[in-house]
Write a structure and sequence with these properties.
The protein has one domain. It starts with 10 loop residues before the first helix and ends with a helix. Helix 1 crosses helix 3 and helix 2 packs parallel to helix 5. It is an all-alpha fold. It has 5 helices and no strands.
C-alpha cells in the first residue's frame, strides 16, 4: 500500500515534486546571486576606504544570503517536509550529485586562488574583494554543478 498525505499525493510524488522544486530554486538563486556580484564589484569603494553604512548592509545581506544558499545546498532543503519525504528526495543519486558539486566547488576555489595570485601581481587587491570573489565561486559553482546533474538525471530517469 502506498502512503498518501491529506491531498492524496504519495510520499514518492511529494519527494519528486520537492526534488524538481529544489532544482529550480537552486538554479534561480544561483543565477540571482551571481548577477548580484556585478553590482557589488561595480559600486565598491576605493581600495582602503572604509565602508559606508549602506555598503555594510549590502555585505551583511550578502553573508546571510550566502549562508542560506550553503544550507540549501548542504541539506537539500525541505526542512519543513516530513522526514520520509526528505529522505526520499535526498536519495543516493542526489547525495552523489551533491558530493560532485562540492568537489567542483573545491577545485573552483583552488583555481580562483591561483587566479587571484596572478591578478595580485598586477594590481593590489583588497581583502574584501578577495573574500567576496572566493565565496562567490565557492557557492555558485557547486550550485550550478548540482543543478546540471539533477536536471540530467531527471531527463534520463
Amino acid at each position: 500500500m502506498v502512503s498518501r498525505d491529506k491531498s492524496g499525493a504519495s510520499l514518492i510524488e511529494r519527494a519528486e515534486h520537492l526534488q524538481r522544486r529544489r532544482t529550480r530554486i537552486i538554479w534561480i538563486q544561483g543565477l540571482l546571486f551571481l548577477l548580484w556580484q556585478g553590482s557589488f564589484f561595480s559600486a565598491r569603494p576605493e581600495f582602503g576606504e572604509p565602508l559606508r553604512r549602506v555598503e555594510q548592509l549590502q555585505v551583511g545581506a550578502y553573508i546571510v544570503w550566502a549562508l542560506v544558499l550553503l544550507a540549501l545546498l548542504a541539506t537539500g532543503g525541505g526542512l519543513f517536509r516530513g522526514r520520509a519525504v526528505r529522505e526520499l528526495a535526498n536519495d543516493e543519486v542526489t547525495r552523489a550529485h551533491r558530493r560532485s558539486a562540492f568537489v567542483w566547488g573545491y577545485w573552483g576555489l583552488i583555481l580562483a586562488c591561483l587566479g587571484l595570485y596572478v591578478v595580485a601581481l598586477l594590481e593590489p587587491l583588497g581583502l574584501m574583494d578577495v573574500v567576496h570573489g572566493l565565496l562567490s565561486v565557492g557557492l555558485v559553482l557547486p550550485m550550478m554543478r548540482f543543478v546540471f546533474l539533477e536536471r540530467r538525471s531527471e531527463r534520463h530517469g
